[in-house]
């Protein structure tokens, strides 16, 4: 037998002896943490006079509403969210100028014309009203009667105080857009005549 084997055998005996010692120690000492009292060991709750105690002895169960039944998918489109209310101050184009332009015949707008209309919106948003009006005129030359560009013309003319140009563009708008422009331009003291 070599020294290596003898060392391994001695180590195994030592580990076995320590395991036995720990087992005996654990079994002989009671646990330090006390277990919670059982139902029989718990102290009784004090008696409560129901006439003087306003709280009920058992809390009422909260009624939970039943979940809504699942909805079947439908082919009807979801209505758009309501428009945001207009705030006083500089007009924002978000709710009425950027509305999708309508080509009544096909619904299609040339991407180049769309790019020009976007430039008109950007100029208007920057407050460059003269440039916005000039760009809107170019877009109207390509697509006459475009309500989006007419709204820019009317709104920019109202802000600039140009009542003649505002009235001229206003008369080309469809009735719903005219109502929007009346509200918008009233802020700048501008009124319109329908024909």
Protein architecture, described:
Helix 2 (111-126) runs parallel beside helix 4 (147-160). Residues 86-106 have low confidence and may be disordered. Helices cover 46% and strands 0% of the residues. It is built from 6 helices and no strands. The protein has a domain at 111-186: Tetratricopeptide repeat domain (Serine Threonine Protein Phosphatase 5, Tetratricopeptide repeat). By secondary structure, the protein is mainly α. The longest helix is centred in the first third of the chain and has 26 residues, at 3-28.
Summarize this entry quickly.
This protein has 195 residues and is an all-alpha fold. The protein has helices spanning 3-28, 111-126, 129-142, 147-160, 163-170, 175-186. It has a domain at 111-186: Alpha Horseshoe (Serine Threonine Protein Phosphatase 5, Tetratricopeptide repeat).
